[in-house]
Amino acid sequence: MKLNFSDKVLQTVIYFLLFVLAFLTFYPFWNSLVISFNVGSDTSIGGITFWPRKFTFENYEIVFKEKNIFHAYLVTIGRTILGTAVSMFFTALFAYGLSKKGIVFKKGYMIICIVTMYFSGGLIPYFILVYNLHLYDTFTFLIIHGMVNVYNMIIFRTFFSELPDGLEESGRIDGCSNFGVFFRIVLPISGPVVATLGLFTAVGLWNDWFTPAVFISNQNLIPLQTLLVQIVNAGQTATLIANLNTYAQSAVQNSVTVKALQMATMMIATLPILFVYPFLQKYFVKGALVGSLKE
Amino acid sequence: MILPSLAFIIVFSYIPMWGVLISFQDYNLFKGFGASPWVGMKHFQMFFESPEFWNIMRNTLAISLLKLAIAFPAPIFLALMLNEVRNMAFKRIVQTVTYIPHFISWVVVSGLVFSMLSADNGPVNDVLQKFSLIDKPINFLSIPEYFWGILVSVGVWKEIGFGSIVYLAAIAGIDPALYEAAALDGANRFKQIFLITIPSISPVIIIFLILGIGNILNAGFEDILLMTKNLTNGIVMPYAEVIDTYVYQMGIMNQRYSYATAAGLFKSVLSVILLFLANGIARRLGKASLW
Predict the structure, then answer these.
(1) B55 and B238 in contact (C-beta within 8 Å)?
(2) Cβ–Cβ of B8/A270 closer than 8 Å?
(3) How far apart are CA B98 and CA B169, in angstroms?
(4) Taken in order A13, A15, A19, A22, is the CA torsion positive or negative?
(5) Alpha-carbon gap, residue B147 to B236, rounded angstroms
(6) Dmax (CA) of chain B
(7) Mind telling me which residue stretches traverse the membrane in this protein (chain A) (predicted)?
(8) Per-residue DSSP letter, A78
(9) Chain A residue at shortest CA distance from B258
(10) Is the pLDDT of residue B75 over 80?
(11) B112: closest chain A residue by CA
(12) Whole-angstrom distance, CA of residue B8 vs CA of residue A282
């Protein structure tokens, strides 16, 4: 396609704007990463822009030696893995059941589900329910909080209902029960959907700080993001240093600053996502489209 | 096969819906639903008459409308711009980078904002000072009047890339013959964007707009909660308190369960009315509608 003069101007403007946007998106991450690898006392002099001036791993060493942070990291990992597995399993099973033709009252079940997407009791009645079920302050609650996701269920169901009937019949002829068909035939061929929805669920669980903040009071059950809120909240020194053990305290007096520790903690809460992101990008994009085509 | 999940939905979604009835009670966590006294509209009246009510409504509506006016069209602009990029490697890089913030938790994002805008060596202040635009660092985050602007900008920053995916997909579905015809008729790229691209994706835009209007009272929750928590002493609260944060503050922090539920219920009812209104208008206009 040939471009005339006005098109070229337009192109130049667009390239410039996009470059600025990409830079503005990227820079905050880069800056934080740089600060997290720079000697804390040096950072506070100011003026670090693109590279660490005095490179160090010290900030990360302290963060990982800090028992609270390390423990919270394990809670986050555990919750993400178990929670995603539970959510995928029950949501897919539910969707599979609802995709069968013979179910009585099928439309009714669907309406029951869809209503919950638009109406809810809100935070307080939910809180009271959880409290009354004795799920308050339990790890179990962190796992089952998102057990059934209606949105994902609808996507699963669409996928299942497009599977050829013959697949299932062949399973039955070989003597499979309903569950047998689900586990041995349906789930193994649902890889792409499970991967896409599983990723979104896992990212959601990894990033969730609010649920634990409201429903967990035991510090031993708090995941990293929620702990991070407490750390960032502490803002200036006092609370954070009180939370750190003696090793860290002596370090803080030397070269490590609160800001450097905050940045290092933020990075360990984010790096796993940034690290897997390039490999999973195509799933992310596919997932975003799967979700939006529902309407 | 559907039983466990169905039971889960009924317990965790429908019992709380029934639970909104506590907004008509003086609910006491230890007495429970059965034994707490009924008090009619008392909590609603208290909410409407509370000194904060108009302030909260102003903030909720202002933040929502700003988001609708700025954060909603932003991904559309990005998609239109990306569509004009001929250099595929550049396009890829921009897309990859702009999608990232969507996957980063609000906790980390609020930490980044805090660090970027900080008056003490924050890069934004550094740059402004270097170019002599300001004499001394501004503590952006502690000026209440700036809060709306910062909140909306950060929201755009976080979601613009990911939001553009849908529009890019819609643009990819446009018949290339339309562009060729327009080019033959002498339309430049700029005209083609307005005469072909935008009209072609308008059904998608309208559907997302309707969904957005139904959400209009969800001014924000996580973002506001985290960005105000980071600020010392809640100086910005007069500009930051919205219905959702108020419900959280009253209900979870102060344990005024009935009062907070009443405020929350008021919001849900208004949202549903807005959703129906928006959908009705869209249908009258003869374009796409949700149902």
Answers:
(1) yes
(2) no
(3) 16
(4) positive
(5) 7
(6) 77
(7) 12-30, 70-96, 108-133, 139-160, 181-206, 260-280
(8) H
(9) A124
(10) yes
(11) A28
(12) 32
Chain A CB contacts of B272 below 8 Å = 118-119
Cα–Cα distance measured from residue A283 to residue B96, given in angstroms and rounded to the nearest whole number: 13
| B123–A96 CB contact, under 8 Å | no
- Tokens standing for residue B85: 């990029």
> Between residues A102 and B145, which one has the greater pLDDT?
B145
| CA distance between the termini of chain A | 35
Q: Which two tokens stand for residue A181?
A: 């068909």
- Residue given tokens 């880069």 in the structure block: A30
**Residue ranges of chain A assigned to CATH 1.10.3720.10:** 59-290
Q: Which pLDDT belongs to residue A294?
A: 44
- Looking at residue B232, its pLDDT comes to 57
Query: In CATH, what is the architecture of A59-290?
Result: Orthogonal Bundle (1.10)
- DSSP character string of B112-168: HHHHHH-TTT-HHHHHHHHTTS-SS---GGG-GGGHHHHHHHHHHHHHHHHHHHHHH
CA–CA gap between residue B122 and residue B188 (Å, rounded): 43
In the beta sheet, which residues pair with residue B25? B38
pLDDT digits over A175-226, tens only?
777 787 888 788 888 887 888 888 889 999 999 988 898 898 888 888 989 8
CB-based contact A145:B13 (threshold 8 Å)? no
* Mean pLDDT, rounded, for A100-120: 79
The answer to whether residue A112 scores a pLDDT higher than 90 is no
Tokens read off for B18: 């029934």
- Per-residue pLDDT at B291: 60
Closest to A156 in 3D by CA, of A97, A83, A80: A97
**Residue A101 confidence (pLDDT) above 90:** no
pLDDT at residue B256 tops 80: yes
Are the beta carbons of A126 and B86 separated by less than 8 Å? no
The answer to whether A11 contacts B84, with C-beta atoms less than 8 Å apart, is yes
Q: Quote ipTM for the complex.
A: 0.85
Backbone angles phi, psi at B26, to 5 degrees: -100, 85
Scan for tokens 């939910």, then name that residue.
Answer: A126
